[in-house]
Structure formats: structure tokens, C-alpha cells
Amino acid sequence: xxxxxxxxxxxxxxxxxxxxxxxxxxxxxxxxxxxxxxxxxxxxxxxxxxxxxxxxxxxxxxxxxxxxxxxxxxxxxxxxxxxxxxxxxxxxxxxxxxxxxxxxxxxxxxxxxxxxxxxxxxxxxxxxxxxxxxxxxxxxxxxxxxxxxxxxxxxxxxxxxxxxxxxxxxxxxxxxxxxxxxxxxxxxxxxxxxxxxxxxxxxxxxxxxxxxxxxxxxxxxxxxxxxxxxxxxxxxxxxxxxxxxxxxxxxxxxxxxxxxxxxxxxxxxxxxxxxxxxxxxxxxxxxxxxxxxxxxxxxxxxxxxxxxxxxxxxxxxxxxxxxxxxxxxxxxxxxxxxxxxxxxxxxxxxxxxxxxxxxxxxxxxxxxxxxxxxxxxxxxxxxxxxxxxxxxxxxxxxxxxxxxxxxxxxxxxxxxxxxxxxxxxxxxxxxxxxxxxxxxxxxxxxxxxxxxxxxxxxxxxxxxxxxxxxxxxxxxxxxxxxxxxxxxxxxxxxxxxxxxxxxxxxxxxxxxxxxxxxxxxxxxxxxxxxxxxxxxxxxxxxxxxxxxxxxxxxxxxxxxxxxxxxxxxxxxxxxxxxxxxxxxxxxxxxxxxxxxxxxxxxxxxxxxxxxxxxxxxxxxxxxxxxxxxxxxxxxxxxxxxxxxxxxxxxxxxxxxxxxxxxxxxxxxxxxxxxxxxxxxxxxxxxxxxxxxxxxxxxxxxxxxxxxxxxxxxxxxxxxxxxxxxxxxxxxxxxxxxxxxxxxxxxxxxxxxxxxxxxxxxxxxxxxxxxxxxxxxxxxxxxxxxxxxxxxxxxxxxxxxxxxxxxxxxxxxxxxxxxxxxxxxxxxxxxxxxxxxxxxxxxxxxxxxxxxxxxxxxxxxxxxxxxxxxxxx
Length: 872
Description:
With 872 residues, the protein is of the alpha+beta class. It folds into four domains: 170 residues, 2-Layer Sandwich (Beta Polymerase, domain 2), CATH 3.30.460; 148 residues, Nucleotidyltransferases  domain 2 (Four Helix Bundle (Hemerythrin (Met), subunit A)), CATH 1.20.120.330; 105 residues, no CATH class; 196 residues, no CATH class. The protein is built from 36 helices and 17 strands.
């Protein structure tokens, strides 16, 4: 429906003002009328209609409260001043006066405002003179901005004219100052959202590429050109008519989302929360309320905000050149017949520079070669956008483009600023069709914080950081490997393709491996190189899965991993890819515990590969070596060897194989002289220097100990990442927990450590009852469903059974699972706790009451009991 075809709403205003009820009824009737039109009406018509409705309502009330008999003016400012009102938007009003209000006027104004509050209108208001407005505007850029877009509603019109005259002739912010203030305001706003448009629950108003970025462009233009019309951008040649239409389309799309969001949330909400996404996707016509509809809507959203961000950058740069003027008068420095360096920006020297597709690739090769280039000149961004729109085939189909792309891949800085700008300006999507498919591709989970293309870009950025000697201390092993690679571009290619098949259906690792292989052959890489890159893509999850979800102290696990990896080259590249991948997935995922697990797996596998695929130490040899080193540490600390050997005689072989010499020494120092009346012994520290916190508990054996400890740690908001549950030969337990705070930091504060220790001590001594789970699922978690699944892993060992549990993560999960173990009369030997977004993917090693692996009957009973406990 065209904007002009929108029917008008005719309110039946009450004749008198006795109560807010009849007026509220009119407001409700309008909301229902507008809501019914949402599916067919143009969004700008709906927003203008709502603004007009409030104009009518306020005018009627202005008269009803006798304010039309005063010399006051009622003025709309801010969004309402622009004539744009969403269902739950605030209504910002300015009441202008010539002279200060008398008592009667103050009473009338107060009654008027109070009545609007009674109507439950989200109201912002101020009562000022024109002079007051200018003083406030001088002190606050936000007030100055809101006044630019004022609009007279009713009352003394000469006051509004006086305000606009003052804003035109006496505006306290010069164009230069206003521009710089709004740019700084935008920079700070973007920082709050980590300068990324790709948040899982974006703020459609304030996030980068959101509505505020569009408004910023218009505010600067209106102040600079002293105009009230958005079209002035076209009239003054700062934007083409086509770009203006494009910007309007993006704005309308974001308006429709915001309008629907307000309706669904029932309040002034700008965050596109998980709770609202399904219904909004349905209202906007993306399908039903299922996951696929949400992904389609969010993909469209991310693609829009990416383009808004590009237009925002281009136009602000145009404004900078016009308002601030050139920093110096030097002529651009020619780089070639087509390109030049303008201060720190690369620019084209003629408007036909991108006439041939290969010129686009040559442009970015220049960026890679010249460290002085920090960005792209605004006019060149425009030409880049136009060239991008005119392409009829992927750039990779052009032989010369392929040659230039290989040159870019091989350049030492090719994956620095050049690749970043190719990603930001959509050139990767133009080069590789498969990349275009992942632009804005959201994954509806809590594990991935970014769209697939943004995640991949961040992975590449992490790999590039490994190449820089200045950052070697951050990830020494990865940096050492990458900086010694003869051809690091093969690793970068694996990074580009590792997730490129997501969203297609099927196994993205296998599909991506096929894409990677064909790409390498197309770009004249050797068969060996192509197979290596394809293998890395296919197995890019193997190392993280093994390190986090398998028992890497088990020689069989290491040998199986080594058999898959086969060569040291593969191991090195897979390690670097894995570290970069985890760090690029979600800023909350990486921690020192994951780092230590990956490095342990790397070292153990490296030793195994050097020993022809066999572990360099047998289990017996590892136990013996751990004992020897731990004994040397204890002897150097003054302990008696005989006492140590007497203590260790009570321990099982599993204890010595699953702890480091440093841990064994630390435990033993405290265990040698501990008395039963002093139990439980609770040690809290970081003897392995892994940046984690280890909690060691030595106590008399009892059924509910592990469950009670897990309940305490959960109540203390600590996350368990690893647990070793071992018994001595004479009826004691020795449980080791690796824990972190919820922000992935270890326990540093001594007061906090003592608080945790005391809570554990009180519960284990029966002075306090174990904490009962009080917290339910978080708001985010309620939007996800994960079916509980148990997978029993192949195991040769006759003394234990290993299984993986996948279920919805929730508070108290570990305590609930261990209660099932008790009910089934099973002994827990070890646990590895992994949270993948909304999913818990935990590994447990158990045995039955006879210290044997579970029978098939016991497995099925365990599966049924856990599913019943967690899914019902």
C-alpha cells in the first residue's frame, strides 16, 4: 500500500477531561488500527500517521487544559520532531515561553503533563525560553541535536519561529565542532558494542550500522547546510540519488523491525532479543516462528547494517573533507597510472579505474604492499560500490584476478589491512561466490557470537597476528610455528574455507573441504597443497574436540589422534587453526585452561609422531616418571622419603597417571601429616601455572560428596571445567576440580578463595546443608531446546566406561547428573565439562560397583535415568 493510500484514523475525542479512561480508549483503538495495517502499509506512512495522531491528541488536550489561552508554544523535538513515532517511542516535548510562567500557568502545565503520564505515554518534556534553549544547546550536544529537528504542534507559533531563527543565526556549535562531536559520539557508541554490527541480540537503534548511524549522517547535513530536509544530501552532491534511495530502503527495513519489536515487546525496546526474534520474523514475512525464519531475518538484518556502515563511513569522510578541510595542501602521491596515496588513504586517479574487474584486485594488492595506507578515500569507496554492483560474475572466474589474488595471499601483509578492507567492502563476496553465501549468515545459538563471515574474518585476523613478531608473547607456540612456515598462505586458505559451507545443510566440514580443494586446483596450487588445505578444513574441529572432550591422559586417545594427523606439518597447522578458531568464535570461550589442554595435546602428539605413532612413555613409565620428579620436589622441600613412600602406598596408579609431579608434590606436602579429625582437607591454588584454579579435596569416602561439592561450586558461581575423582586404597577420596569464575578468570582474591573454602568445609562437615538449586534458566536459555543424548565411546579398558552427555546447559546440571550416578550405584572416575553456547557437552568416565565397565543393561539403565532426570 502506498503511503498516500493509508486511510486516516478519526478519533472520537471526549468532550470533557474528567479521567484518562476515554482518552486511553482512543489511544488503544488507534494502536489496534495501526497494528492491523502493519502487514500492508508503507512503514513511513505508519510512522507519520502515529505522529499525526499524537499531534491531534496533544492539540485537543492543550485546548482542554486551557493552554490555548496562554502565550506558550508546544513543540515536538527529537524523533517526534522528525515526525517519526514507533509504537512505544518516547514523546519529547518542549514548552516554550516568552516570560516565566505564573502560578496559574504552572498549574495548567502540571495538570497537562500529569494527564499524559496517566495515559501511560513515555514522555520527555522541558519548559524553557528560547534563550534557555540556546544555553542548554551550547552545553550539551544531545540537546543541540534534538532542537535541530523541532516541529511546531500548537500554541504560540511566533515562539517556534523565534527558536528556529535562533538556531539558524546563533547555533552554538560551528559545523566543525558539531561534526567532530557527533563523530566522537558515534565512536563511543560503537565501542560499547565492540565496534561490531554482528551481535547475537543487536540494538537496532544504537549498534554499528543501526538507525542512529543513519540519523548521524542527516544531523550533520542539516546543521551544515542549514536545512530541514534529508534530500539536501543529494542537492549538495554529497550523495547520489541512487545512494539516497538505497539509504532510505535500509532505513525503512530497520524501521519495520523496530516497529514490530515495539509491538511484540509491548514497550520501548530496541534490543532484538532472542525472546522476540521468532514472532518478529513471522510479522515481517520471513516464514513462521521457527529457527530458519529467524536466521533468514537476521541474515537480511546483518547485510543491511553492513551496507549502512559503509555508507556512513563514506559520507562522514565526505563531510570531513568539506567541513574540516584538507590537513595540508600536498598533491596526492601517484602509486600507478590508476591509484594514488592521499595522505593515509588510497584513492583512484580517474573514475574509470575499476572498469576492468582485475583492477579491483590490483587495488588491494597496492594496499597490501604499502604500509602507509590506512583506509580508502571516500570517492574511491563510491566507485568501489559502483564497480561491485556492476559485476556479472565472481572475480575468481577471471584468470588475471586469480593471479593477483594469489599474489595477495603470498604477500607477508596480505591478510592484514588489505584483507580487512576486502571483507568490510564486500570484495571477498565478489571474489568468491561461496563467501557471498555466508555474509550475514547467523547461527541461532549461544556459541557463535558473530555471523559466519565475521567469525571467519576474525579467525584470519588471529592467524595474521601470529605472523607479527611484536605479538609473539601472546601465543608463543602458535607464533613460533607460523613465523617459521615457508608458505603460510596455505594455513590462511584453510581459515577462509573452514566454515564456508555453513547454512547449506549437510556436514559443513566435508562440503567446505571439497570447496577448498577445487579452489586450490583452480588457482594452480599443487595437488599436495590442495589436499593439505582440504584436510585442514575437513578436520578443523578435531583438535578442539579431542582436547576438550576426550581424556588426553589416556595413551589410546593420543595414539588415535596421532594416527589421524599423521604428520608434524598437519599437527602444526591444525593447532594454529584451532587456536585462532576458538578465539574468533566468542570472546568468552577462550581461557587459559583451553590453551593448556591444546598445548598438552600438541606436545603429546608431537612426541608420539616422532616415535612412529607410539606413545613415547607407556602408562607404567609415565607413572614412574611422575613419582620420581614429585619425590625430588618433596625431598628438596625437606620431606622424608620413607614417609612419602608410606603415603603413596595408599594411592592407586590412576592418581599418579592423571596428575603432574607438581600437583602430586603439592598434595603430598599437606597429606603427610593430616589427621582424620582435620578433614576435609581443601587445597585451592594453581600449581601447574595454567591460569586456572585447582580445588583439591581429601576426605572420608561418602556417597554424595561429588554432588555436594558440585552444588557448592555452582552456588558460588564457579564453572567446573575438569574433575578427577579418585579413591585411596583405604577408604578416602581425592577429588580434583579445575574451576573458573563465570568470566573465565581464576580465583585471585584471597577473601574469595577463603569464602569458597569455608563453604565447602561447612557442607562436607555437615554444618550446612548442600545448596539447593534456586536459579532457573536464564532469559536467553529459555529460547533454546536441546534434546538430551548419551553417546558411549568405544573403550578397550575393562575397568571403565566413557560416555558423552549432550544436553541443555543449566544451573546445577552436574549435581543432578551425579545424583543419577548414586541412584544407579555407579562410581564417577573423571569428568570433562564443556559448555558450547546453550549446550553442555560433558564427558564422564564411570565404572560400576564392582569397579568394572558398565554392561549393556547398565548402560541402557543409565541412559534412561539421565534422560528422565534432565528432560522431564
